[in-house]
Amino acid sequence: MVIINIIKAIILGIIEGITEFLPISSTGHLYLADYLVKLNEPKYFIDMFMVVIQLGAILSIIVIYFSKLNPFSLKKTALQRKNTWILWFKVVVAVIPAMIVGLPLNSWLEENMTNWQVISATLIIYGILFIILENYYKNRQAKFTDLNKISFQMAFLIGCFQVLSLIPGTSRSGATILGAMLIGASRYVSAEFSFFLAIPTMFGASLLKIVKYIKAGHTFAGDQLMVLLVGMVVSFVVAYIAVKFLLRFIQTHDFKSFGWYRIVLGIIVILAGVLNFIH
Questions:
Q1: Contact criterion met (CB below 8 Å) for 134 and 254
Q2: For site-directed labelling of 51, which of 42, 157, 202, 226 has its Cα 20 to 30 A away?
Q3: Which positions, given as ranges, span the membrane (predicted)?
Q4: How many domains is the chain partitioned into structurally?
Q5: Does 279 fall in a domain?
Q6: pLDDT tens profile 151-163
Q7: Domain of 223?
Q8: Per-residue pLDDT tens for 184-243?
Q9: How far apart are CA 142 and CA 56, in angstroms?
C-alpha cells in the first residue's frame, strides 16, 4: 500500500511540477488526477496533500532566482540590494488583495467551487482570453521589459488579478501573467513577477492548510509524511525544469498554445463531467 501511494505521489508531483507555473491551472489538473490517481488515504489528507506539495514547486523558484531575490548578497551593489528590497515590497503589496479576499472565503470556495462545471468554465474562458490578448498584442511592443519598471500600483493591480485565481481552474500564474501583460509588461517580465508572487502566496496557502489540518485534530503517520515529502521533492525537480522551459519558450513564442490547450482540456472536463466520470 505504501509503495503504491509513493508511486501515486510521484505522478501527482510530476503533474504539480509541470502545471504550477505554466498558465494551465495546477488545481484543474490535480482535480482530474484525483479521479485517476487517487491516493489511498483519507480525504482530509488528500485535500491537504494537493495544496502542500506546491511547496516543492515554490522552492524551485527560490533556487532558480536565489541570487536575484537575495537582498543580502555581497555580490550586489548597494543600489542592487536596494532594488531587491523594493522588489520584495512590491511582491508583498501584490499579495494583499488575495489575502483580503482569500482568507475569509477560502473554505467556502473549496466547498462550493471545486467542481467540474466551474473548472471547465474557467479553463475555457481564460484560454480564450489568452488567445485574444496575444492576438491584440501581436504587432505591439510591450511598454516595459524591465522588472524594476513595475510600480507599486502595477504590483497591486497584478495582485487583484491573482484574486481571480481563487476560483479553481483559473490558474494563479495564468491570471497574474494576464494581468501583467494587460498593464504593459512583456511576457518575460510578466512570467517572472508571477513566479515571485507565487512564493508568499503559496507558502501562505500551504501554511493555512497545514494549520487547518492540525486544528482539526489530524496528525501525520510515518507513511503519510513520506508520501507528502516524495510529492514535494518530485514537484520541485519537475517545476525547476518547467520554469526553465517556460522562460526559454516565451522568448520566441507567445501564450496562445497554452490558451488552446486550456480550451481542449476544458472540453475534456465537460465531457468527463457529463458522462459522470468525474463529479
A1: yes
A2: 157
A3: 9-32, 44-66, 87-109, 115-133, 154-183, 195-214, 226-247, 259-278
A4: 1
A5: no
A6: 999 999 999 999 9
A7: 2-274
A8: 999 999 999 999 999 999 999 999 999 999 999 998 888 999 999 999 999 999 999 999
A9: 32
